[in-house]
Structures are given as structure tokens and as C-alpha cells.
Design brief:
7-stranded mixed beta sheet; BirA Bifunctional Protein, domain 2; alpha+beta; two-stranded antiparallel ribbon; 9 strands
Length: 336
């Protein structure tokens, strides 16, 4: 009987290996493992053997049955994955699943565009630090010790001397000390302020600080730069206005407002019903700041500005609420 089982095993393995379709494989299964198959017939004959041989023959037969079942099952999977037989698991003619591509956040997109514009104008890009000292954020920029911006209601203090920067202007003196006079630089980055959020204000926002220092730098250079940059960003001439503003680190200081493109100047929540949106605080660098940068204010002048990326993006994409940018809502972000 052992020789018979070995012969059956050899024959069936050859048949399984050479089978080309599921129908032929099913026939082998029935012929060997079916109710009237060869294995079943051997199991039925076991009672006819001597009592001492029955356990050995039964074990050999059952082991062969399990082995052949496994081989047939593996062959069936091979036929399915190779596209042969019925009930395919993989149809190579079926269109594939489209892989979705990610994209940059809208604020990152506009930041990169602004960086390209300024580098084409000869500006260098300075990264700066998000955690700065009291000196960098306030003292070096001519802020008095009792200035309200230092209050805990406006600034997130980490310690008595350090904080997350409340503006990218904190890098002005560091840039002048590192590069000296005749420098043109921008500092794009994230800023933090402890203030109430609304449609046009967030506690975390993005700025692009601009600094130009050299000989005979004047307001004409400042106005021309801002006009050029905004026109390139919006692809058209934009309506802007300069109004006096006070910032300790510039003298004179201005607020550059742009006519609200959302309401076309009629007034909405984004522009606080004024028709204009505050976009770029700017002015001529204060002599004390130039002095803190290691330069002679009698010899060198400069201008500085801080572009609010969030508000600029609001105008660019006609978005009424700045909080959408930081919501993480894919329904919003997937539109860009």
C-alpha cells in the first residue's frame, strides 16, 4: 500500500504542476479527493488490512490527502493571480486606481511666489529665528520698556527674556550686523501674538519682513517697491493708500492699505466695513535701529515693511475669513 500511495503522490504532483486552467484543476481534485476519488477508495479499504497495519496506512493516507489539498489550493491561487481560470482576483485590463497627488498649502504657495519676486529684485532670503530674546523683539527696535506690546496680553512670554517672535522685524538688527550696509533682505516666517481671533486676525500668522539699507534710500524707493510687488502678485494695478502710522522702529511710519478685492470697497467683515484692508506696515528705518545694527545713521538710511501673508492670500484668493487657512479642513485646502 505504501508503494501505491507513493505512486499516486508522484502522478498527482506532476498533474498539478502541468495544469493550465481551473477546470482541469477541479477535475484533478475530484479524481483524487472526491467522494469516489482514489484517496477515498483507499480509506474505505483500510478495514480489510490486518489490524496491526491499519493505523500506519491510515496515517500515510491522511498525510497524503492533506498534502495534495495544500498543493491544489496553492495552484488555484496561482491560476487566479496569473489571470488564468475563472474568478480572477486581478484583472490587468481594468483601469488602475488613480493616485491623488498632494500640494502645497496656499500660504506656502504665495510665500514662495513672493520669495521669487524679491529674489528677482536682488533681495536675499533670511530665515531668522521663531524664538527670540527681549532685545531682538523689542529693545533693538526702539521699543520703550513700558510699551504696551510687551504686555502679556499681547506677547507670549516663555521667560523674562525670551518669547516666540511677535513680528519678523526682530531680525532687522541681526541682518545689519551680519551683512552690513547696502543690504536688501526679506525674512519670511511665522509670528505669534496673544490677541482675539476674528475674520482678519489669528494668534499665529505669517509675515514677510523686508529691509533695505544703504546710501540715499528714501520713501520713493519704498513706495516703488511695494507697488511693484503687489502688482506682480495680483497681476494687475492695485489701489493702495498710505496713511500715517506709528511703529517704534520706523520714522516716519505708514500703513499701506489695499482696496478690498472681496467687496470692491463697499465694506465687508474682512475689511471691517471700511472698504480697505490693512496690509503692509512700513516706513523709514529709525536712526536708533540703524545704530543698533552697527551702522552710522548719518551715513546710511533704509526702509522696512512687513507683508501679512495671511491677509495677502485672503485678497488674492477672495477668502473672507483668515481662520480657514489654519483649520485643516480638506474641503477648503483641496481648492488650491
Amino acid at each position: 500500500m505504501k508503494k501505491k500511495l507513493v505512486s499516486i503522490r508522484s502522478q498527482v504532483i506532476i498533474q498539478i504542476q502541468s495544469v493550465k486552467d481551473k477546470k482541469s484543476l477541479d477535475k484533478i481534485r475530484v479524481d483524487i479527493l472526491g467522494r469516489k476519488g482514489k484517496i477515498s477508495q483507499i480509506l474505505k479499504e483500510i478495514p480489510n488490512f490486518p489490524k496491526s497495519e491499519r493505523p500506519k496506512i491510515g496515517k500515510l493516507t491522511n498525510d497524503l490527502k492533506k498534502e495534495l489539498e495544500t498543493l491544489i489550493s496553492q495552484k488555484e491561487k496561482e491560476l487566479k493571480f496569473s489571470g488564468k481560470g475563472k474568478g480572477l482576483l486581478l484583472d490587468i485590463t481594468q483601469p488602475g486606481i488613480k493616485q491623488e497627488r498632494g500640494h502645497l498649502h496656499p500660504l506656502t504657495q504665495i510665500r514662495k511666489e513672493i520669495e521669487d519676486i524679491f529674489t528677482s529684485m536682488g533681495y536675499l532670503i533670511y530665515t531668522g529665528h521663531e524664538i527670540v530674546t527681549d532685545y531682538q523683539n523689542y529693545d533693538s527696535l526702539n521699543f520703550k520698556k513700558d510699551h504696551p506690546a510687551r504686555d502679556i496680553m499681547d506677547t507670549y512670554w516663555i521667560s523674562d527674556k525670551t518669547m516666540p517672535r511677535s513680528h519678523t522685524s526682530s531680525m532687522q538688527v541681526e541682518i545689519m550686523k551680519k551683512y552690513g550696509a547696502e543690504v536688501k533682505a526679506i525674512v519670511p516666517g511665522r509670528c505669534y501674538r496673544h490677541e482675539a481671533t476674528d475674520a482678519s486676525h489669528e494668534t499665529v500668522f505669517y509675515q514677510v519682513e523686508g529691509l533695505v539699507v544703504g546710501k540715499k534710500i528714501n520713501l520713493k524707493n519704498l513706495k516703488a517697491t511695494q507697488k511693484t510687488v503687489l502688482s506682480k502678485i495680483f497681476g494687475q494695478e492695485v489701489n493702495v493708500r498710505l496713511r500715517p502710522g506709528y511703529f517704534p522702529f520706523v520714522e516716519p511710519g505708514f500703513e499701506l492699505d489695499m482696496k478690498c478685492v472681496l467687496c470692491k470697497g463697499r465694506g465687508c467683515s474682512a475689511c471691517k466695513r471700511t472698504g480697505w484692508i490693512e496690509l503692509i506696515p512700513c516706513g523709514m528705518v529709525h536712526p536708533n535701529v540703524i545704530k543698533n545694527g552697527g551702522l552710522d545713521p548719518k551715513k546710511y538710511t533704509g526702509f522696512a515693511f512687513a507683508i501679512g501673508l495671511d491677509r495677502l492670500a485672503m485678497m488674492r484668493y477672495e477668502i473672507e475669513d483668515v481662520r480657514h487657512f489654519h483649520s485643516g479642513d480638506l474641503r477648503f485646502l483641496n481648492q488650491f
